[in-house]
Amino acid sequence: MTAWPKARAFIALFAITAALAVPASAKDNYERVVPLLDTTTTVLGQPHAYPKGEAKVTSAIVTMMPGEETGIHFHPVPTYGYILDGELTVSYPGGVEKTYRKGQAVMEAVGTLHNGKNLGTGPVRILVVSMGVVGKSNTLFPKDE
């Protein structure tokens, strides 16, 4: 076999191998990055301010069944939420009520008492990420103070 047929055979083998190695979904046109939130304030318009101390980031998925409530609480640190499923209605002081639905991202109010309720018919699941401080709680209830 001369050099050209060997090269053609190698190129063909490479092309077949590469095509098989790429998952079908990677060949499709899709958004590689989907922006969720880009903000300098919380849901109540408070500017972001990070706590002093040794930084600690925590995350959790919170699940609430229909009719469940978080209980009145507040976050002393910046807290990000992303609604994975369902919807959550949150009551803030002054009669402010906001409903967050599946696919929405939110920077929760800092230092403001609020209560979340699942008023829907199915579970609500929320990815919660807190930018806190080592040794301090990210969520406080009035009785904790």
UniProtKB/TrEMBL annotation:
Keywords of the record: Signal
Leader sequence residues: 1-26
Cross-referenced SUPFAM superfamilies: RmlC-like cupins (SSF51182)
Domain Cupin type-2: from-to ranges: 61-129
CDD domains reported in the protein's UniProt record: cupin_CV2614-like
Protein name (record): Cupin domain-containing protein
Higher taxonomy: Bacteria, Pseudomonadati, Pseudomonadota, Alphaproteobacteria, Hyphomicrobiales
